[in-house]
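Backbone geometry tokens:
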Amino acid sequence: MQGSLTLSAEKIQLFSSQKEVTKVIAKGNKNKLAHYKQNQPNQSRFIEATALNITYLIKKEFVHLEGKAHLVQGFDSFSGGTLDYDIKNDKVIAQKSKDGTERVRFKIKL
């Protein structure tokens, strides 16, 4: 059984290879960010994220959030200029924006 995934944005691009979608890019704007939500059957926590641009690499199970990036995973939250979420390994990597205006912030429940 697979979990459910929802991606919404002003503009969504699909990239495919031999009749199979390999990558999805969702582009929002400053008034309405792109939105990603995923429920996984093997995790009690849901993943929800927003950013100006969200890139989802399907086979690599990898999500890249860029610009006003924010990710919530159950009781934990992360934000920064960019966030990378490795779905398979349940790992988040956050970085500040290049101009330094969007610092890395996180809140975790221990």
User: Anything to note?
Assistant: The beta strands are 4-8, 11-17, 20-27, 34-39, 46-51, 53-57, 62-73, 76-86, 91-95, 105-107. The longest strand covers residues 62-73. The mean pLDDT is 87. Residues 4-107 form a domain with the lipopolysaccharide transport protein A fold fold (CATH 2.60.450.10).
